[in-house]
Amino acid sequence: MIVLPTDRSFEEASCLLRKGDLIGLPTETVYGLAANATQDLAVARIFEQKKRPIFNPLIIHGPSKEAFKNHVSWNETSDILADAFWPGPLTLVLPRLTSSSVSLLASAGLDSLAVRVPHHPIALTLLKKVEIPLAAPSANPSGKVSPTQANHVEEDFPDLFILDGGDTSVGLESTILDLTTSLPRLLRPGGLSLEAIQAIIGPIDTTPQKLIKAPGMMTSHYAPTLPLRLNADEPLEGEAYLAFGPTSCKGNHILNLSERSNLTEAAANLFKMLRFLDQPDFQRISVASIPFQGLGLALNDRLYRAAAPREL
Ligand code: TXA
Ligand code: MG
């Protein structure tokens, strides 16, 4: 059920969360499948509903940096980053405090916790109102494309109470930075560019991790039903085409991530357009090449995973 944000629906959402139910929650990145992070059973429902492997930990959402003070241990770098980019599309992985009330299932038994303050009025209002940390993965079955509209969530979870926040503004999941190591490590490129982070804290370790710390890092992920062909100048017979920048290709089977080659606009459009083109009328989706700078890093990351041989 898709519900507009009103005092009443915020009240209902809070009640559902307090009693351990799940809700669909808009954030600036993608819609989340949110639950009370301190209730094992509520967190277990997330894994069950998403068919998510339980070794894949969840991000914990709060209304402010202060809300996490009893859950994670802060350091100078995390302080600087939180002050610079929160609320916003940045997730920080920090040492978990033994006193944290967050379910151990939520962090998959790790001694770290991923935390973020989303930049969305509905998410922030609800987080302030419920006063409990919310675990919220993207509101899609594990491995599939993330939702950027309330109706995407409803397609996969028809019985869910979903707060309607319209189209998400960023369109890609948050950037995940591991601050438990001496040199900060990029675990997942996302809605905040690496350049923006480096401008504030300097060097970041961007070497691909051998150990899967963030299973959004599994090779096949964010995948539509149709196979993908990347770096395509134009569609072949039977292909839908996702263009980027000016193109002479025309037709109903063609969408453009950004006619003016704007990476922010392309990020906001990526998942919505992939879903739209993922139709049985086509044999494959071909996608134009996208530069590897700014949000292009995260865009390419999602496209390469969507195109990777399926693991499941
Ligand atoms: O933008 C976002 O981050 C969205 C919205 C809803 O906030 N959430 C999201 O969650 O993308 P999800 O579950 O789809 O991706 C969370 C990623 C996973 O790849 C997980 O492995 C990683 O965060 N993660 C969570 N806790 C971690 C930890 N303690 N250490 C390393 N990675 C962690
Ligand atoms: Mg996800």
Give a structural overview.
The chain is an alpha/beta fold and 312 residues long. The chain folds into two domains: 2-173, DHBP synthase, CATH 3.90.870.10; 228-307, no CATH class. The chain is 27% helix and 16% strand. The chain has eight helices and 14 strands. A ten-stranded mixed β-sheet has the order 1-8-2-3-7-4-6-5-9-10, with helices on both faces. Strands 11-14-12-13 form a four-stranded parallel β-sheet. Helix 1 packs across helix 4 (121-130). The protein is globular and about 60 Å long. Threonylcarbamoyladenylate is lined by residues 27, 29-30, 32, 56-59, 91, 93, 107, 110, 112-114, 118, 136-138, 173-174, 176, 187-188, 213-216.
Chain-wise SSE layout:
Elements lengths: L1 E2 L3 H12 L4 E3 L6 E5 L3 H11 L8 E3 L14 H10 L4 E6 L16 E5 L4 H10 L3 E2 L14 H7 L4 E3 L11 E4 L6 E4 L5 H8 L26 E2 L9 E5 L10 E3 L6 H15 L6 E4 L8 H12 L5
Parallel strand pairs: 1-8, 2-8, 4-6, 5-9, 11-14, 12-13, 12-14
Antiparallel strand pairs: 2-3, 3-7, 4-7, 5-6, 9-10
Helix pairs in contact: 1-4
The site of threonylcarbamoyladenylate has 28 residues, from strand 5, strand 6 and strand 10.
